[in-house]
Amino acid sequence: MNEEMTFAAHKALSADHALGGAMVAHRRPKPLIIAVGGAKGGIGKSMLAANLGVYLASRGRRTTLVDMDLGAANLHLYLGLWGLKHHIDDYLDKKVQDLDEIAVETAYGPKLIGGGSRRLGSSNLPFARKLKLLRAIRCIDTDYVIIDLGGDTAYNILDFFLIADYGIVMTSCDPAAYLDAYTFVKMSLHRRLLRIFGPESNYLQFKDDDLISLIHSHLGPEAARNDGQPGTIDGLMQAIRQQAPAQENLIRGVMERFVPHLVVNLVHHPEEVDPLVARFQRVARRMLAINVAFGGSIPAERQIARSTHDLTPEVVRSPEGSLASFIANLMDRLT
Fold this sequence. Notes:
eight-stranded mixed β-sheet; 13% strand; globular; Rossmann fold; alpha/beta
C-alpha cells in the first residue's frame, strides 16, 4: 500500500498555509478527510464509515469518525455505543471550545463525534454555524477524519461532502440507487462551482464577481431555461469561453480536482458492476465533464449484513474477510 508515503506527504503539505504556501511555525497538521455520502438512505454509508474508521485505527492511525447525519444520527450504534453524553450540538452551543472535547473513545479504536439529533431542525444549520463547524472539522487533532453523511442533497450535506480530501459516493445496483448517486454527484459539482469563492473555499483569493454572476446564471436557482429545465455544465463552459475566457482554466482546474469515488454496495451479481460503473462514468463525462473514479464493490454477504444487526464492525469480526480486503483496496485507490 502507498498509504504510508501519501499520508506523510499530506501531513507535510498541511503544515503550509492553505493559500499562500508559506510555512507557518508550530501549526498543527490538518487531518486527511474522507466523506461517505450518497442521496439514498439505507445504502450502507454508516456501515462503511464505521468499518473504515476501525480499519484505519487498527493500523495505527489516529482516526475520528464524525456523524453528520444530523437529523437521524446513528453512527454510534455501528460502534457498539447505545448512547452518547456529548453531541455536535454541544460545540455549536459553545458548551465546549473545540470538537476534540466531545470526541468519545470507542471499544474498536476510532474516536467518535456524535451527530446533533436532540432538537427539532438540527439538520438545518444556519450558514454561520455551518461555517464554524466546517472549520472545526478541519482542525480536529487526528490523522484521519471520516464523515458519515445523511442520505440527501441538502446544501448542508453537500458542503460537508465538499470539504473532504476524498469523497465516496455509495450506490447499489438498484436503478433508483444509482440514479440518486448520480444526482448526488451532479448536485455536489454544482454546489462546488456555486460556492467557488465562498469563505469556506480555497479559491477565495481569485474572487471574480463577474464569474460568480455567470455561474449563478447557469447553475443557480434562477437558471431554468424557457422550457423549465436548469442550465448545464456544457452551457456554463460555453458561456465562460465567450464571456470570461481568462477564467476558463480556473474552472477547469476546479472540475478536474473534483473526483468522487463510486462504491457499489450490496452486490448480489458481480457481473452487473462493471457495466453499471462504466455507464455512470460515461454519463458523468458527457453531462458533467468530470471523471468519476471506481472505488470498488462490496458483496451482499450474510456476515456483513449480520454485523450491522449485531452492532459489531465486520472488520473486527473478520479482519481478513471480504470487507476488510475491500477497504484495504479502497485506501490504495484513494491515496
